[in-house]
Each structure stands twice: as C-alpha cells, then as structure tokens.
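Hi support team,

I'm opening this ticket because the web form for multi-chain structure prediction keeps timing out on my end. I have pasted the exact lines I submitted so you can reproduce it. The total is 225 residues across two entries, so I didn't expect it to be a heavy job. Is there a limit I'm missing, or should I split the entries? Thanks in advance, R.K.
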Amino acid sequence: DAGITQSPRHKVTETGTPVTLRCHQTENHRYMYWYRQDPGHGLRLIHYSYGVKDTDKGEVSDGYSVSRSKTEDFLLTLESATSSQTSVYFCAIRDSFNSPLHFGNGTRLTVT
Amino acid sequence: QKEVEQNSGPLSVPEGAIASLNCTYSDRGSQSFFWYRQYSGKSPELIMSIYSNGDKEDGRFTAQLNKASQYVSLLIRDSQPSDSATYLCAVTSSGGSNYKLTFGKGTLLTVNP
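Hello R.K., no limit was hit. The queue was backed up. Here is the completed structure from your submission:
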C-alpha cells in the first residue's frame, strides 16, 4: 500500500470522547489527505496537507482537525466524537498535485 | 461544489464481455483523471490515470477522456469474475484548489461466470 500505515485499524468509542487517527508514510510525499467513506456518499475529503504545518479543509471538515508536524505523519482528530462520525477513514498520499492518490488500508471507526 | 457523477449501478455483465463505466465532471478546468477499483472492505487501488484527450490502454483496461464533453470512461475487455468490484472515478480540481481530488460515488460492477 505504497508505504502508508494507518492506526488503529479498528476503533470503537463513545459519543463525546476525543479520538485521534494516525497516518504514517515512508514515501516522503508532500501531499497527504484524509477521506471518509460512507454508503451512499462515496469518498469525501475531510482535510488535506500540502506540506509540514500546511493544511486546509475539505468538503466535510466540521468536527475534525488535523496536524502535520513531520512529513511522514498526518493526524486526524475528532475533538468530541458523534455518532455521525461513524465511518471508514482513509488516508492517502501523492507526490505532486497531478499524480494519483495512493491509499492506506483504512480505519473503521464506530461511535456508540 | 465541483461534482463527479457516476451511474451507481449495479452493472452486470457476463464473463468475457466488455464492461463500460462512465463518469462526468463539472469542473471544466480539471486536468487529471483517475480510475480506482475497490473491493468490498478494502481500500481503493489505482487502475488508470489519464491526462489528455483520447484513449489510453493498459492490458484489458482502456480509459477514454473527452474534455470538451467533460466525460471520462473506463472499458474493461474480457471481463472476469475477479473484476467484480466498485469502480471509482476521480478528478483533480482546477485553479487554487488543485490539490483536491474529488471522487464519484462509484459504480458497482458484477461479472457473472
């Protein structure tokens, strides 16, 4: 999977608790992305990063924050998880803005 | 909101037939187009990239791009049961948001033995 590791792979948490998902890459790619995938909605962009400390919002960013302090790590935080954030979360990387994305294996998050 | 539209399917074809998957997009300035395959419970994997008008072939797969019509398609020749999956079309945004890649909702393909 193009040197991308997501952790954890599965997580169950309660409403109102904070959650952090981690994406780690070994490819030294500049661009990193967080998507969520839900039935009927497809893949939707949450946040992305175009360099260390450079991040921007996607189409479904409410309730999520991100940080990128090193090239290889991109963290997604749910400050106070809600049931609507139950989803499969994918991290992806690319080395230039015209190149394809390569995806990690995903994190299945359940908020009860 | 820039959109990418695909028929949700399911598209069902017999083994050995040609499967045709279609995608339209709204951002006229888009320059990069991708097809991904996603098996149930797995992450999307890249099948094809296409950047200029015309056809691009890779084995049994052919991607076709028509920027004037804002249309991109994927043909799968000699379809196999192992091709049964959801196929996602993805388009890079133009202008200041060209870091973003927008996905269609996917077309579910079933190849029947």
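A quick check on our side: The first strand of chain B starts at residue 4 and ends at 6. Let us know if the file doesn't open in your viewer.
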